[in-house]
Write a structure and sequence with these properties.
The chain is mainly α. It contains 3 helices and no strands. About 10% of the residues are buried. Keywords: Endoplasmic reticulum, Membrane, Transmembrane, Transmembrane helix. InterPro entries: Spc1/SPCS1.
Length: about 110
């Protein structure tokens, strides 16, 4: 009885956390693009700020802040990175003999 309750609680937790931590391919692409844009902008701003203040340390601080900001915005699975569709749309199952499964040079005979 207790083992069944523990198993049920584990399954529920797995399902809940699976939905919370899941980021699909589109979310990964969005996170990568955000990371690159923030890092490049902070690098340019840091270089300009360091040049104007004649201090490489100031430029590196701005770059480090940009890296920290981009990490904060892209590493956790925020809601804008998770799938927005409630149900995934799956393709119809193909037969084993379907030509779509094989490239033209590997025709199954």
């Amino acid at each position: 009885m207790v083992l069944a309750l523990i198993q049920e609680a584990g399954d529920w937790l797995n399902n809940y956390m699976g939905r919370w931590w899941y980021v699909d391919y589109k979310g990964q692409a969005r996170a990568e693009k955000m990371f690159q844009v923030i890092l490049v902008l902070s690098g340019v701003i840091g270089w300009i700020y360091g040049f104007l203040t004649e201090s490489m340390q100031n430029g590196m601080i701005v770059l480090g802040g940009g890296a920290a900001l981009s990490s904060l915005l892209t590493i956790p699975p925020w809601f804008w990175l998770r799938p927005q569709e409630k149900e995934l749309k799956w393709h119809e199952e193909l037969d084993e003999d379907d030509p779509k499964l094989y490239p033209s040079w590997e025709k199954k005979e």
